[in-house]
Amino acid sequence: MGRSITRRRFLHSLALGAGGALLAARSTDAATTGGKSGGTLIAGWEAEPGAFDNDIDRGAVTRTLLHNIYDRLVDRDMTVKANQPLVGNLATSWEVSPDAKTYTFKLRQGVKFHDGTALDAEAVKFNIDRDSDPNHKYYNKAGAGSLKLGYGNLAGVVVVDKFTIRIVHKDPFADFLPVLAFGTYSIASPTAIQKYGNEDYPNHPVGTGPFKYVSREKGVKVTFERNPDYWAGAPAIDGFIVRPLPEAVTRVTALQTGEVDWINAVNPDSIDSVRSNPSLVLELAQLPNTWGYIPNHKYPPTTKLQLRQAMSWAIDRETLARDVMRGLAVPAKGTHAAGTPGYDPDITGYGYNPTKAKQLLADAGFPKGLPLEVWIPAGGAGSPFGVQMNEFIQQNFKDVGIEAKFVQQEFQTFQNNMANGVQKDVNALQVGFSVDEFVNLQRMFRTDLQPPNGNTNPGWYSNAEVDALLKKARETTNAEQRKRLYFQVEQKAVDDAAWIFVVNQKAARAWNKRVKGYINPNSYMFTFRTVSIA
């Protein structure tokens, strides 16, 4: 058994230019979880999962499943409740050059993809080249856009030997390891990609993870089975089934009647009834979530700073969190939630001040108000109660003169439209973004990561001062100095009203007491690898 690396040790090793870690191969033996081997877990999902590309972000409802199908070179340990450490996954150790340009990884030996082919350095290089080299036979343009942050500035990818790979960046990239832990940096079987091609591969995903994809009946269920040869220990359960149940009440009813064993995103109105049921467990998890709106910075009128600030001052976050979300959210003051590594306690954000909002509207040239169109997703882990929250905020906006029209879209359709950036006739998108790592600020606010070079700056935000700060942060290996640079970016994003920051949400997840060993992490991501059924 190896050992995990703490955040402090990780940052220290980065500063020294050398590091390494081993993922603790935690036992999933049913005897350790209080359950028994076998059985199939049925999970109620808040939206239909998207395609299982290993390299494209289709929202948390899909990204969570990538963590069950695939592995990455490094990962956050989701068997830990809070402050998940960065651990080796397919890499057992790594070295970082003092200038943070060169990363050399030793790979875990004896690992096989679900199709029986071996994981080695050539397989990892295939995955990276596919998402970075336009001349690669299986170059995936969409994947390359999605992974632009990590692979967009490579000087080379070198197979040193069968189980050693070296990744070299043209410029220093001090945050590269946390980036590699994102779900979209999952390693897929080259053989499967060559067999099915880029278009059809997402229907036949093949990774090295604890569960294998089996089949999908769209709108009905997605089936996974255990990987008996998983390198960290096979799951105790035979497999799990995801049932898309977008209606929150339907999910709770399915859990209460035993149709499903586990559900995500319990509606605030159902919290008490679930808690009072002696057969059920309900736990909250503070998500690294910021819920709000991404204004259109490319097309007017939301290009006007005073209008974006007016929207920010118009929202009564305290009442929203207390009465609508019933404690499942806290008012957001900036980009990151309290308790996450990126949280800056000195940022005070926007309060509730309708008078100030009206004055700012007048200053922006709209003394009599204006109409706005906002697109919102149906369901999805980032915004499971978007309808109720948007109805409340719609009235807040109306009170100051903003007539907001909310247009709801099917979740995966919304994700696809977001990847193309906010279009001309749309004024904002409502999103619930994962903002656990500092490096997410790079994804959200860099000018060169606007679509089509990524799908994480869909609002076309661009600020030369912010770009310069983000570049300096990437090149700064001293963790404390880098943190200070990122805090400057956060304050600038708030001052610019780059987003309309509203609340930081908590996840309410519930399951039958027959389900043993499930760890409910403070994260969108989780694993069923540790679960057994009594």
Secondary structure topology:
Elements (H helix, E strand, L loop, with lengths): L6 H10 L13 H4 L6 E6 L14 H10 L4 E3 L9 E3 L2 E6 L5 E6 L13 H10 L10 H6 L1 H4 L2 E8 L2 E6 L6 H5 L9 H11 L10 E7 L3 E6 L12 E6 L3 H9 L5 E2 L7 H5 L4 E7 L2 E7 L9 H10 L2 H8 L4 E3 L22 H10 L6 E9 L7 H15 L1 E9 H9 L8 E7 L5 H6 L18 H12 L3 H17 L4 E13 L2 E2 L15 E2 L1
Parallel strand pairs: 1-10, 1-11, 15-16, 15-17
Antiparallel strand pairs: 2-3, 4-5, 5-7, 6-7, 8-9, 9-10, 11-18, 12-18, 13-17, 13-18, 14-18, 19-20
Helix pairs in contact: 11-13, 17-18
Give structural notes.
With 534 residues, the chain is α+β, with helices and mostly antiparallel strands. 30% of the residues lie in helices and 22% in strands. Helix 11 (305-314) packs antiparallel against helix 13 (354-363). It is globular, with a radius of gyration of 23 Å.
Q: Please estimate the helix content.
A: 25-40%
Strand content: 15-25%
Task: Indicate the overall shape.
Answer: globular
Helix vs. strand class:
alpha+beta
Q: How many distinct helices? A: 18
Largest sheet: 12 strands, mixed
Low-confidence stretches: 1-31
The total beta strand count reads: 20
Rg over C-alpha atoms, rounded to the nearest angstrom: 23 Å
Short description:
The protein is an alpha+beta fold. 30% of the residues lie in helices and 22% in strands.
Q: Which tags fit this structure?
A:
alpha+beta, 12-stranded mixed sheet, 4-stranded antiparallel sheet, 18 helices, disordered N terminus
